[in-house]
Specification:
This protein is of the alpha/beta class and about 200 residues long. The radius of gyration is 16 Å and the shape is globular. The protein starts with a helix and ends with a strand. Its EC number is 6.3.3.2. Keywords: ATP-binding, Magnesium, Metal-binding, Nucleotide-binding. It comes from Paramuricea clavata.
Amino acid sequence: MAAATGIKEAKNILRKELKRRLAGMSVELKQTESARVATKLFAMKEFQQSKRISLYMSMPNEVDTFGIMGKIFELNKKCFIPHYIGPIMKMVELTSMADYESLPLTSWNIKQPADNDDRADALETGGLDLIVVPGLGFTSEGARLGRGKGYYDSYITKSIKLGLKAPITVALAFSIQMCESVPISDHDMIIDHVLYAD
């Protein structure tokens, strides 16, 4: 128990440090690094071969995913985005950029379907090939520090329990989000690929 408390405390300290670093980044640098990271993603064979991709809706301190969404539609791939209802996260399909534009804004200032917008979870329609995962901090080996809710860890575990193939996970990061090490617990997933602007 003491070890778990220590890990939790270490995560909270690192979260504060990473939020401080991100707050100091200029809008221009975020845009430049976001574009570089998106280029790296598009060059990956895993991205090119994936037909069903889920994408987080970026907040101001995250690598921007808006252009990536446009690319997914341009390539005729299926695009899924998170739909949070309480402690549960589903990945629901977007049909077009116009569909995205029509979504309401949440209190986090990101778009997501309304609670009564009944869209099927990707897990009910064949699973996902690739999940683009957000986070606060990463190591180049794939350790990830999220925001502490465990949404993505739970979702991937659920996917595997349902007998679906495990999706490839790709994290997108600004260079200042890369860490020498990140404290992780047993239930924390390791990311397959961490892409960052170097």
